[in-house]
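Archive maintenance. Older records in this collection stored only the sequence; we are now back-filling the structure field for every entry so that each record is complete. The fields below show one back-filled record exactly as it appears after the update. Entries are processed alphabetically, and Serine chemoreceptor protein is next in the queue.

ARCHIVE ENTRY
Title: Serine chemoreceptor protein
Organism field: Thalassovita autumnalis
Length field: 593
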Amino acid sequence: MRFQSPYYNVSVLPENFCHPKARLYDLTPTPLARVFSMTLSIKAKLALSFTLLTTFIVAIGVISLKEMAVLKDRNDKIVHEDFQALRDLDELAIIQERIQNLMRDYVMIDKGPLHDQIEHELEALEHEEKELIKTSYGHAAAKEVAVLDKFVALRTQLEAVNAEVIALFKEGKLEEAALKLVTEGGKFDKAILKLIHDFSEEESIILEEEVQRSEQEYNLAWFELMGIIIGALVFSLLVGFSMVRSISRGLNSAKTLSKQVADGNLTATVDNRRKDEIGELLTDLNRMVADLRRTVGDVTSSASNVAAGAIQISATSNQLQEVSITQAAATEEASASVEEIAASISSTADNAHQTEALAHEAAEMARNSGHAVNEATKHMDSIVEKIQVVQEIARQTDLLALNAAVEAARAGEHGRGFAVVASEVRKLAERSQEAAAEINTLTSVTVESSQTAMTMMDELVPSISNTSKLVSNISTSNSEITKGIEQIGIVVGQVDCSTQTNTAASEELSVTAEELASQARVLRDAISVFDLGEAGQADSPAPSAKAPTAPSAPVAAAPAPATAAPQSSTGISLDLGDDADEVDFTPANSKAA
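Back-filled structure field:
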């Protein structure tokens, strides 16, 4: 037997479709199954599957509840209608039998207190029987009502017989009472028993029919439930197999791709047309492989560039080392020259101090000379005044000599000697006058020279003072120059230290560059396990071993101020993962002093 489910074409054994050992084969997915497995998400598949399974379970529950309700109604009908009527008649028959037994006891014993007790029990049983009859009428069907009517009619007649028996017994007619009880009472008693027996037979047949009908309904409900359960089980197996097959195929594709990537093949991808979470996973894996292929290609290219850069850094560090050595030698020479300049400046400063002292002494002597020239000029004025007096005396003497000569000439021979004396006196007066004129002239020249010397002294003193100040400024400048030279010496020493540090750093940089080149080779070898295809291999050039061209002459850098902060440069931190065999490259920060 072959049928087609919504998801698979299924073939089963034709003998018993519901047989639990029926073989299933030819499970080929239908187009609906392919759409179900490729289009819907796993969440939607699970939701749909559990919804359908819940529908099956609800259907099973509804049908079970419905059939249970039908069976309950039928059992209630059997118990509360059919069986209840039979039980009521059976109880009525028991009560009636007890009444008839009490009537026989009543007739058989002698008169006494027991008769009153029997009469009370008879009244109680008759009352109970009436209540039971009334109750039976309340829930009896039409057929049970007819039987109850017959029972009531027979009971009424039997009560009349029992009443007559009691009356005959009380009248003392014991034999008649016993005979009436046995004959007439027995006839009605048998009629009641027959009525109840016939009704019981009919009800037993009806009960058997109801039981058979209940069994048939139970069997029908059982088969319906079993069919639904088997259908739900088959559906669950098919849906579960479909989902497991769909998920396993997607996971196998992801596993295959992951294995290929783990083996280093970055050219592999998965043909994915699914729209569910597995499809999203495969899409993400494809994108991850593409990104990883691009990243590995970039890393390979970067490793090549790092190797080439490391070679260039090594050559540059060697050149920097040579320049640093040359700079160190030049720095030592500059330091010696600075020391010589400092010694010369120190000697110049001492000479400047001595010159300053001499300038102060010369200024003081010039001031004293000025005062002396000023005093001499004043004395010259006094001398000029005195010479003018002498000239006046000589003029007057010359006049007196002239008068004496005139008088001697008048005297003749007697005044010849006086004339000679007057002549000599006149000559002396003339000579005194000439000498006084020369002295006056010399004195005037001397005064002019003194005034000129005084003017020059007045001009010389400020010049000497200015010279002293200039010498003092020169001394101060020499002191500042000395401090500057000392600072230059310190800076030169720092430059020397920096040069030595740069030399050591150049050596470290050369070693670091070699280590970086080695790490780049290790990185390239580590990445070489990945297959990037032709495009990926073309994108990763080999590192160039060509060293950078050395500059024709070192570039002189301006010396940094003494207070400048040192510059720091940070290198590259390269970490390729948690491999135990890797060597992480993290160069230390190099600081310039």
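Update note: The chain has three domains: 1-32, 40-260, 279-549. The beta strands are 2-4, 8-11, 25-29, 568-569, 590-591.
Entry marked complete.
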